[in-house]
Amino acid sequence: MKFFVCVALLAVVPAVFGVNNWSYHTQETWPLISGSQCNGNSQSPININSSIATTTDLGSFVLDGYTDENTNMDLVNNGNKIVIQFHDDVEDLYKLSGGGLPTTYTATHIHFHWGSMNSGGSEHQIDSTPYPAELHVAHYDKSKYADLTAAVTSMQWDAATILGAFIEVGEHNTAFDPFLSHISQIANYSSGVTSLGQGNLPSFPIRSVLPSDLSKFYRYNGSKAVPDCNEAIIWTIFTDTISISQAQLDIFRTVYGEHADAQGNYEVVDNYRYLQPLNGRTVYYSRPTPESTDGGAVTISPMRALFIVALTICMLFNRF
């Protein structure tokens, strides 16, 4: 009897404390958090089955400001992952459109997920194959919402979008040096020093940390992959990967977070959500058609524009 009482009390704890008190170690309790939608039908991440993805050409992405450098970013240990935060004046530099997206989005931050071993760590998988880590660039529709939080809590399917890329082990990647070299300063969450400070992160263009080839990607409608799991995200997962060295990957594994695992360890590893069911959603695979290969210039024919509009409408109705 006492055992069942304890279980009941443990189940209530997340609901009492709300969405700010969650852990990757206790994902089974996420649906119990007050206001959580973590049991929804359009959740993320997913396993992408390439054999059943619908092949199409959504066109090229337009990255406005992604090659610019700035000195007003921050490096943050938020207790469960490493975040490169863009502040308001920096956000206006980074605009994303094209690639079949219904509007223009503003980037707010980059964050990372990684595993305790190289055999896993990414949130998404392709054909049941995980990668050691995954990078996300989060964006929202600034024309409609005050910030990313307001966007995702709106529960509108097109309120926000995330660019996702798999990270694998290869050669040393100098593009990662500006922030990896400073992780040691914020590695211990319990120290109270969890932020490098706005403007103290060496400048770098965010395009440099993305895959070289952005022309081929998967697209689906999903959710935030942390509580409260709002279903308001258009996901893009690139097929081209990012390579970093083993030593660089191991730097992520030196981070200590807010919550301990069952053994009392505070290392931030395996900070990814379990795979979620597709529940009948359509996953699109976009690749350039021969006539669209033009050296990277963005050209959209009237027929393609009409197709993209129709596809966007189909994605909307696919949610219901």
UniProtKB/TrEMBL annotation:
Keywords: Glycoprotein, Lyase, Metal-binding, Signal, Zinc. Its EC number is 4.2.1.1. The keyword Signal applies. GO terms for molecular function: carbonate dehydratase activity; zinc ion binding. Residues 20-287 form the Alpha-carbonic anhydrase domain. Its cofactor is Zn(2+). One of its GO terms (cellular component) is plasma membrane. Residues 1-18 form the signal peptide. It catalyses: hydrogencarbonate + H(+) = CO2 + H2O. Belongs to the alpha-carbonic anhydrase family. Reversible hydration of carbon dioxide. This is Carbonic anhydrase. The lineage of its organism: Eukaryota, Metazoa, Echinodermata, Eleutherozoa, Echinozoa.
